[in-house]
What does this fold into?
Amino acid sequence: MATQTLLDRLKRSEAAQGWLLISPTAIYALLLLAAPLITIFAFSFMTDGYLEVVNKLSFCNYVGSCGSFDGIGEARVYQPDKYVGAWSDPIFRKIMLRSLTVSIFVTLATVVLAYPIAYFVSFHVKPERKPLWLFLITIPFWTSYLIRVFLWKVILGYGGVINSGLLSLGIIDDPLTFFNYSTFSIVLTLAHAYAPFAILPIFVALEKIDRSLLEAARDLGEGYIVSFLRVTLPLSMVGVVSSVLIVFIPTVGDYVTPSLVGGGKIPMVANLIQSRMLDLDNKPAGAAMAVSAMAIVALVSIIFLLLNRRYLKGNAR
Amino acid sequence: MKSGWLRGYAIGYLLFLYAPIFLLPLFAFNEGKIIAFPLTGFSLKWFQEMATIPELRNAFWNSLRIAVAASLIATTLGVFAARASTRYNFRGKGAAMGLIMLPLVLPDIILAISLLVVLLQLGIPLTMWTVILGHVLVCIPFTIAILNSAFLSLDRSLEEAAIDLGETRFSTFRLVTLPLVMPGVISSLLIAFTISLDEFITSFFLTGANPTLPVYIFSQFRYPAKVPVIMALGTLLVLSSILLLAIAEYFRRRGVRRQGGKDTGGFL
Amino acid sequence: MNASATTTKAIIELKDVQKYYGTYHALRGISTEIRQGEFFSLLGPSGCGKTTLLRTIAGFEDLSSGMLKIDGKDMDGVPANVRPTNMVFQSYAIFPHLTVAQNVGFGLRRERLSKDDMARQVGAALAMVGLDGYGDRAAHALSGGQRQRVALARALILKPQVLLLDEPLSALDKKMREQMQIELRRLQRQVGITFILVTHDQEEALIMSDRIAVMFEGQIAQLASPQQLYRRPVSRKVAEFIGVMNFLPAKVVGEVGGLAEVQISGLGRAAIPLEQCPAGVKAGEASVGFRPETVTILFDGDAARGHTVNGTVEEVQYFGDMTYYDVKLADVEKPVTISMRNLVGRKVLERGDKTVIAWEEGSLVLFC
It folds into this structure.
């Protein structure tokens, strides 16, 4: 006779099976992702020592003046006021602001430029040809990012491809400088690198739009532009929002492009964190910067999501 | 109508996307040492030089070995997670999956530096395995994305039918589930392999004495003399990426055909 | 219906079967017996628990409590892959990566037959469902109807004691469905095993089954032969679910000698035998039901049988072989539907025509 306890056993069984199955991956993530992140978070509240991190808690890595420990073991001595915390540090603020600004420009440029091509492939390409277009669009994404950034460095350099080409064609007399090792070149390189990221989410959202809605709008007398603005655009906003986040978040933390294309003179927050944490071996300070940067990115993303709430709600699948 | 200038825009956009990449073979076969116009002549010497550099060859083999290991591990862990996530419902599933997919929204550098710091604190030396560990972290969200859709498109009643006809859970997995998700598994392996080959940041921070190819390339950027060789290397890398992608796409389409499904296009 | 093919031996016994999904009570005490060799249907609206019950018999769901026996053996703890049942799934679940022959022979894999034996059996099974020569085709390239036959062959080749079918015809178009209904019935008679069919289509159940269990909300409302179900529905809900039924308000005046004295709006006074009062006889308000074909419109020259009342034709629906009339009766707001066969020489009435209706007690069912 089957009883209620058998039911309990079964319920535990599905959950147990599920947990068992996911455990290898979950444990991996726990050990190698969660634990290090928590460690970094913890470090940001500790004090810098010589080749070590000392367990003396303080907020100074975020705000205010920080001391650090010199010497090791018995000879360890605390020296106050050695450096300032992230938010009190004008360098961090300037670089963080620069990173945000660059990201926002990159995001704007990529998403705005990506929308028309996503629209084109979704609405003006025959269904059998769509995989081909998508394939062509994503190929650059799969080629070496490092090489692509390097190519832009080579293209935009003072004696680089654009300048030498324009010079030899006689279009200019002196090499152009506004795109050598400037913020503009960083923005351009990143926009190029993240272009495919921006196209795909918009494309997916556009594909999901029921074509008969547009036909209905036209049937009711709306012109093409109006039906785009009133039907297509709002319904594709989910894709636009994903697109924005997919470009914005990694761009803020990009390391390679500022180091190569910025000539080392235009660091972004990733370069700063690396230099603080590793080159200067100040882990608490670097940790605080990393946490602060992540917090800001999270905040900006959340605000963005909240502002676009109504587009996300309507898209219940 | 509208299609005309949109199509023009699309083609222009694609040209912009591919422009830098076209430069690679252009200057890889160029005789001159400086990457600038005008072109000085056709030459294969950069490719020849490339073949003679031992560090480059070592870095290449390192990358290959790491990519194979990383793709195998990431795909295996991905299969577990994707199967659990699509077939079972249990409390905390969202949280576990959220953690596992976190690398998608975290800048690579944070992942790499945090892991590095912890490894250093624990006194663990940096070897190829530390690089593999980092790569797997980065690849897992992608493998799960691919495998999720492979498991989801698998009709659950197929597995029930197999059991109804007398098979055990294991033999069902072997005879029905695995063959049907195999295209997804292969795609996952190829994608993870490609990501690992190109992965720079985690390699850069977690590498010991055996650099990967991207790390090697990065170290050569400061030497102007080495630039053309890098162009030659880059040309080959791009070609092989495209080849791998084409193979992955072929398998994906084959999988779709075998199941008699409709092609919705690409690794979305 | 061919009653002689079924025995009275119970192949499946269910006693107070309960099934909960969390707090949702899907099966609320199912107790019944299914006889060996019969074509048994579980009929009901979606959500009534019929598929849950089928899956419980198959072994894909466990009972929360109660007893399930197949061929006298308790199935508690017996996994699905061991039970003497086989299932045809709603989506057919044909393995797309195998050929038709590999699909059909899938369940025989464990028996380690010789290649020739296997081929022979598979060939026979395919012939039985009319798919001779389809063995080498890729399974995913078949039409819906063909897939269904492959699913049938695949299940029947294992000679189960019970074949379970989960809404097998719902994905087919009308013509295919009608064809398969006849096919399935023929197949069942040929093979002789017990078929249990789940469907929401009452027509389908009536055509194919020896007995039907009508289910609402996790319980069996009535278990009977199609004729019984149609003529003597046990409740208003069952009556409304099967076919079309007219309901007239009525008042039970009393009970005299095995007959219920009822005053029916629109028809008049009637003495209804107790066997036509499934819910018993209670004085007071009630309703009386009758099927459209059990009441007659009298044309000129027809002899009247039973009682007659006057009516007006409000709506006419001509179906070729039958005509359905909506007739308004005196004192009744909603018109009743009456069907008449279009016999040679019989005219078709028009809207507004005055007509005479003949009815008999034998057509009526009293619902108290």
